[in-house]
Write a structure and sequence with these properties.
binds zinc ion; about 0% strand; single chain; globular
Length: about 80
């Protein structure tokens, strides 16, 4: 049986559920919806252009636009 595969699939779904639950609690927005609509989960503004690849990748993980990313994360060279 492919029990191992099933449990991996279930885990990845749960991770997305957790992001949705947390984002709904914190920002009253769905992480999944914000990401599919290319909008920011924190401020709700459009998040389609990024100044660097790192910010674009971060959006895929956090669904935050670049200004919100800059507020949340400390600058590396600051
Ligand atoms: Zn934002």
């Amino acid at each position: 049986m492919n029990t191992k595969f099933n449990s991996v699939e279930k885990t990845s779904i749960n991770v997305n559920n957790i992001k949705d639950v947390v984002s709904m609690k914190l920002f009253d927005r769905s992480f999944t919806l914000a990401q599919s609509a290319k909008s920011c989960v924190v401020c709700g503004k459009q998040a389609e252009s990024f100044s660097c690849e790192r910010a674009a990748i971060e959006f895929k993980m956090s669904a935050m636009c670049e200004p919100c990313q800059n507020e949340v994360f400390e600058p590396i060279d600051g």
